[in-house]
């Protein structure tokens, strides 16, 4: 069966996709370089605006610059959605969510004053620098890490739930032990806070047990904390060994924007579309 001829709209989408998503074409590389420069400048504007001196001295300039970058990134986001054959795939992908979060804070600042500083999340968009530098192996490692995190999320959630149970029990015991002799453990939530701080080896030192039994319980939690830290690392590491595959190429799928395909891939490993 012969393919239907491409319309002008399809041709336009293909050209936009080549510029915005393809990192191995001259036009795509120029676009990525310009985008990264804009991202760095916009992050710098957010940082400078948080300094009270510049915020009060140059409010209009910083305000206009912030809206200029926001409108620019909004247009870019719309073009990305428009040029993808399956917009939903891009919108709910990692980069799609980051691209959306990069523009929302400025619009939210019209309702909630101060939310524009959340635009600092734009710095995550600098991950695209790997495309410009053609460091394909780094893109591959990011993909491996993301797959490992997705595969191990249930195990990590069960682990965190178990840690919270231990924290509740230990915090309650510490409240029973220290509540009558120390003015620091004034409630069970306070004891749970102490247990979490102790197990994670943060050790703020704002609350500490005074009785021998309380100190013994604290010692057990401290020793347990070292083992607790190692468990998530082991879970993710085990999943990473299962997700390693041959080095990919930089070609982007025109339908769902997925990258990191195998060198000889003909079809997208995410949506099945032809590359």
Describe the protein in words.
The chain has a two-stranded antiparallel ribbon. Helix content is 64%, strand content 1%. The mean pLDDT is 80. It contains twelve helices and two strands. The protein folds into two domains: 8-134, Voltage-gated potassium channels. Chain C (Four Helix Bundle (Hemerythrin (Met), subunit A), Up-down Bundle), CATH 1.20.120; 153-243, Helix Hairpins (Orthogonal Bundle). It is flat, with a radius of gyration of 25 Å. By secondary structure, the chain is mainly α.
Features:
275 residues, mainly alpha, Four Helix Bundle (Hemerythrin (Met), subunit A), Helix Hairpins, 2 domains, two-stranded antiparallel sheet, 12 helices, 2 strands, 1% strand, flat
Produce the secondary structure layout.
Blueprint: H1 8-20, H2 26-49, H3 52-57, H4 59-83, H5 87-91, H6 94-101, H7 104-108, H8 129-132, H9 136-151, H10 153-178, H11 188-199, H12 212-243, E1 248-249, E2 261-262
Antiparallel strand pairs: 1-2
Helix pairs in contact: 1-4, 2-4, 9-12, 10-11, 10-12
Tally of separate helices: 12
| CATH third-level topology of the largest domain | Four Helix Bundle (Hemerythrin (Met), subunit A)
Give the amount of beta strand, in percent.
under 5%
Q: Give the termini distance in whole angstroms.
A: 19 Å
Order of helices and strands: HHHHHHHHHHHHEE
Largest sheet: 2 strands, antiparallel
């Amino acid at each position: 069966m012969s393919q239907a001829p491409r319309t002008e709209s399809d041709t336009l989408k293909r050209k936009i996709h080549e510029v915005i998503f393809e990192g191995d074409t001259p036009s795509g590389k120029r676009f990525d370089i310009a985008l990264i420069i804009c991202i760095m400048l916009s992050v710098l504007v957010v940082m400078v605006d948080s300094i009270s001196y510049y915020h009060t001295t140059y409010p209009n300039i910083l305000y206009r610059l912030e809206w200029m970058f926001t409108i620019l990134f909004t247009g870019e986001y719309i073009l990305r959605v428009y040029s993808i054959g399956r917009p939903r795939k891009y919108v709910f992908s990692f980069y799609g969510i980051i691209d959306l979060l990069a523009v929302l804070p400025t619009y939210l600042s019209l309702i909630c004053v101060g939310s524009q500083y959340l635009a600092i999340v734009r710095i995550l968009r600098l991950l695209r620098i790997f495309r410009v530098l053609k460091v394909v192996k780094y893109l591959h490692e990011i993909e491996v890490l993301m797959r490992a995190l997705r595969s191990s999320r249930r195990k990590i959630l069960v682990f965190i739930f178990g840690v919270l149970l231990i924290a509740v029990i230990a915090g309650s015991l510490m409240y029973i032990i220290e509540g009558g002799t120390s003015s620091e453990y004034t409630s069970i939530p306070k004891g749970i806070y102490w247990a979490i701080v102790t197990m994670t080896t943060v050790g703020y030192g704002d609350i500490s047990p005074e009785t021998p039994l309380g100190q013994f319980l604290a010692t057990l939690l401290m020793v347990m904390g070292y083992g607790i830290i190692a468990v998530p690392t082991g879970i993710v590491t085990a999943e990473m060994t299962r997700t390693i595959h041959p080095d990919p190429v930089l070609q982007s799928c025109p339908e769902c924007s997925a990258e990191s395909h195998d060198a000889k891939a003909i079809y997208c490993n995410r949506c099945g579309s032809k590359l």
